[in-house]
Amino acid sequence: MESDHKIRDSHKENILKWIYDRLYLAFGPREWWPADTPFEVIVGAILTQNTAWSNVERAIRNLKEEGCLTPRGFRLIDISRLAQLIRSSGYYNQKAQKLKEFVGFLFARYKGSLDLMFKTDLLILRQELLEIKGIGPETADSTLLYAGNFPIFVVDAYTRRLLSRHNLIGEQANYSSIQNYFMDNLPCDVKLFNEFHALIVQLGKEICRPKPNCAICPLRKLEEIVS
DNA sequence: GACCAGGCACATC
DNA sequence: GATGTGCATGGT
Questions:
Q1: Residues A161 and A203 grouped into a single domain
Q2: What is the pLDDT of residues A31-55, one digit of tens each?
Q3: Chain C footprint bases within 7 A of protein beta carbons
Q4: pTM for the full model?
């Protein structure tokens, strides 16, 4: 029984390694997250919720031009002005509120310092982030991995789609079960988690979304090894 | 003009 | 616990 699990687990491990290798070969290092500072990563993670990244880029550009893309800048800026600057990212009233919630937390708990915040134990900090209104599991994990360099796997719509399309997870799989699928079957490595998630997003954006084109998909032979 | 995009909170049953 | 709904812009 236990050996059955081991066989299954090593199979999963091999599939994940296979997927990673193919994606890395196809797309190369992604060098994520596309941002200049950890704070910009967090802001981008909130702004990209259910929104195309191109819409977020415009918002980030506005924030930089305004010179307010810092914890202190966000603390001081009027929320209606903030909403106006991030308008292109959609849901701008909600997102302005979320950004204010986050910096409110950052100052109340960590004196406005991300360095201090990221000195906290991973699981404790993750829980704290999840308690902030507007930060759910994906935003929390993006923050932890891409801004804080913590070894945690980010699950998003692309990840879910990839696994369910290839029948690697059930229809009903929730966030943490998908996250565990990766983290239980991969070495716990920040660089690997960073690169893998970025590659999955690249696959979704470049190959699957524009027009599903299996002929050029780097994973087109996946079915053959998933048996 | 419909449909989609790197979610999340909240209401209702 | 599952399911539905509001939030909103810009690209295809």
A1: yes
A2: 999 999 999 999 999 999 999 999 9
A3: 2, 6-12
A4: 0.95
